[in-house]
Structure prediction request, 506 residues.
Amino acid sequence: MITGSEMKALLNRFPKFEDSCIGLEYAPRLPKGIVGETKELIAYARKFNDEVIRPRVLVLDRETFEDPGYLPHDIMKTASDWGFYTMWVPRLFGGRGKNLPSLTYTIEEISAACAGIANVIGVHFLGVTSLMTSFNMKLTAKILKETVEGEKKGEPCLISFGLTEPMAGTDVEEMDLVDRGKVVTHAKRVDGGYLVNGRKVFISMGHMSEWTAFYAYTDMKKPSKSMIGLAVRKGTKGFSLGRHEDKMGQRVCPASEIIFEDCFIPDEDVMIDSYSMKKFTKKSADAIMMRHIDYLASATKAGVCAISVGVARGALEDAIKYASETTVAGRLLINHEWVQCILAAMSKNVILGRLAYTEANNANAHRGTYEMLQVKPAYYYLKYMPDAYFRMIAPMLEKPFSTWAMSKMYLDRKPDKDVFLTSGMSSLAKFAGSDFGMRNCQLALEIMGQEGLRHDRGMEKRLRDCKVLQIYEGSNQMNRVALFKNLIAPSYPQARVWGESAREVL
Prediction:
């Protein structure tokens, strides 16, 4: 029918099979234990929704309007008591070590009840991911162990992530655009560390977090060449919290201004410094940071899609409930053909959105940050080894060897094309999922009419919650361009992205 060489040539033509059928390629390697574990976590999240979130979700939303400075400490502690802040922390750091792709399915489930509370958990793991993709194993171990100890003591130790600049917006999401924004967070090298001045805005969970992982710049004229990752503990001299944003949606997840005024960050709390990393890798300084940002975004944008799909599903469930209880012209709404067509379209959006983040997860597991954790031997080894073993080897994380090993694995040995693929698929998931979420909210309101505008129906809250999903983690327009840059442009040398030639796939 076709020769092997012909098949290879045809499948390597754009769009490449390996880049467009990730699930089919990855499925044979997927440990069956992942499926069972994920099902258990979905069920656990549904119980959490029934017992904790749904009885209080609208009350909490109303409280945030009556008191814009309201901080939901009780809900945050309850989530900690249920184990959600350590559930996906690797056992090597004392966490529960659940498979990382299951985080998105759990987040979807919680978001179907409340996107804001789902985002609290998601933001915490954004902070966790920023630490783990920095390759600084010593700092990562220190902070994650505090998170685990905080849960045991009943004192949640959350980690937020500070990226957004007041005059740069989402430009800082892309290394190619950093120089075009007006960044203000400056890190000056001094004896023993860095002196930081500046501020960040719209930092989710800033007021609730014990640690904040953030980026600053050592050269304000060329910030793209001088980005540095740092971590700061709450209460550090020179670090303070500014305004608590009175925002449109996801109000139960605070958005904070964080301020640095001659804030000293010691060397031990430097998350990633491209120049010090040079002793571990052959990569250039800007290539190190670009790789770090790509790894981070690839993991977290799938999470944004999952929250969006949860909102889309919640809107579908609300619309079905209303249609099955409401009679128009002598018939239940659910028996009107036009309503059935809308509900079918909404169901399609949920399924396609879930497929988008599943494929992003597959890309991460097959080509990206999860790869070493999801292959069959490693997965079962990490799942079933006694805790005593992990306590025995944990001190090795504090050795420079650990950072060297991670750098070799993810900086030097990981092909650029794999990083581009995971970044592109995650960008797709982000804008597709959030667009599906908004569309389902609009379609639900078409069915519910004026009833959908009432606060006690919950639908208008979903709409408010969903709108921000199209903006944070890079606007959807930016993510569309990022998909083009990573998945299309490398095959077409004449393509230009943001005025520059596309990165060459090696």
User: Anything to note?
Assistant: The chain has three domains: 16-156, 161-273, 285-501. The radius of gyration is 23 Å. The first helix runs from residue 4 to 11. DSSP finds 18 helices and twelve strands in the chain.
